[in-house]
Amino acid sequence: MGKSVYEGRYTTENDQDIVIFIIGMRINKRRAIRKWVPVFLAMPGMIKELYQNQESLGFLSMESFFGLRTTAMISYWRSTDDLLAYSKGQKHLTAWKNFNKKIGNSNAVGIYHETYVVPKGSYESIYGNMPLYGLGKATKHIPVTAETISAKKRLEPAQTSITKPASR
User: Fold this and answer.
1) What single-letter DSSP state applies at residue 60?
2) Cα distance between residue 18 and residue 40, in whole Å
């Protein structure tokens, strides 16, 4: 995948529901290499599987981050049904079983995940002189126009439904 920079300002259409799934690990005991390396090495195979089967799995895209002790992967999904179905798939179940077998209750390495279900119209984005990234890689990437020039305008439909009091 190329990293072509899109000059100027871009945003995304927010006309579809999206699921954002954040998963990662934290090395709690750096010297316990035998505990945390297998956890770290389980992820590349799953990432490869996701990209090879994007359409059928409902996986849209992902970004990865690596810190001194903590990793994070932000992934974008078509639906919670797709995400939950993947969690029951062979590659993920195998990794989960291996984690429980090798790590068990050891506090040498920690794992976490968070899931956010975001309704259409309830998110916005802006990218200036960037390659496709984040939601811009997961959804339709479009140039900024007069109608999408500000975050307020990009969120206007969602803000209208949230801020208007219910009629009596």
Assistant:
1) E
2) 27
Q: Does residue 53 share a domain with residue 128?
A: no
Total count of domains within the chain: 2
Residue 48 to residue 46: CA distance in whole angstroms? 5
**Whether 30 and 75 share a structural domain:** yes
Give residues with Cβ within 8 angstroms of 166, minimum separation 6. Answer: none
How long, in residues, is the chain?
Answer: 168
Instruction: Please report, in tens digits, the pLDDT of each residue of the chain (168 residues total).
Output: 458 999 999 999 999 999 999 999 999 999 988 888 888 888 888 899 999 999 999 999 999 999 999 999 999 999 999 999 999 987 888 888 887 787 778 899 998 999 999 999 999 999 999 999 999 999 999 999 999 999 999 987 655 444 455 554
Is 125 within 8 Å of 11 (Cβ atoms)?
A: yes
Tell me the whole-structure pTM to 2 decimals.
0.85
Tokens of 31: 């010297």
Q: Do 61 and 47 fall within a single domain?
A: yes
Range of the domain at 24: 18-118
Query: Do 81 and 22 share a structural domain?
Result: yes
